[in-house]
Amino acid sequence: MFYCCGITEQGIKARNEDAVLLNNTVLTEGKMELKIEKPFIAAVCDGVSGENSGDIASKMCLAELAKQEFSSEFNFYQALMKIHKQLKHYGMFHKNSSNMQTTICGFAIDENRRMYCVNVGDSRLYRFRGSELKQLSTDQSLVQMLYEQGRITYEEKRKHVHRNIIMPVLGNTTAKPTIDVSIIEEDPEYGDVYLICSDGLSDYVVKSEIEEILSMPMGITKRLDELVRRSLAKGCKDNISIIAATYVPGDTAAVC
User: Fold this and answer.
1) Which helix (H) or strand (E) holds 240?
2) What is the pTM of this model?
3) CA pair distance 40, 21, nearest whole angstrom
4) Which of 119, 122, 227, 248 is paired with 166 by a 20 to 30 Å CA distance?
């Protein structure tokens, strides 16, 4: 089973364009924690602020995904392409929402304990094991492409002036998104934390700081609160959304 916590914080922005999905429940403000048995999907959407109605796009995307019955037979590509078309269609008939778009990053586990990483855009999925944080998703962004080509360093990637330029995401009216779905090959271990976040966290709190906070001897909800607090303290100008799914095998007692 997984003990899961989700939090979404508007921060200093005029509205929250992020949304969080935990086991068919969509969260658009505040926090939520619950125990979840497999199969389930957890995901974060970050509406594209440079376009209209990013808040509608993120919430609509997760509301549609929440309607799906997830299992090993589920086809993420088909489901997300259908949602992509729904977002485009909505924008076509609602002038103020023209070209509304959203990223999505998710973690899922089916009835056979097979785990998946799903990503479109630059929200992220990490695994925290022991004291080490490992990114499982790959950013679909300009700076990631430059980094992979060896044209910029990791440190330059983190601070690059164009770090918020992303590849086509769900709802884009001029190009089809690339939907990355991969199987997480390593089995979960007791205490593993699968962390999904929008760039309101990853753009402001570096890897070593996230590792430090996730290693703190307190409940996972308080650790997420501290991640949000740290991002805001470092000048975050974006919304911040985080999900943590902590693996607890069998009937082991634990508190989220």
Assistant:
1) strand 240-247
2) 0.92
3) 10
4) 227
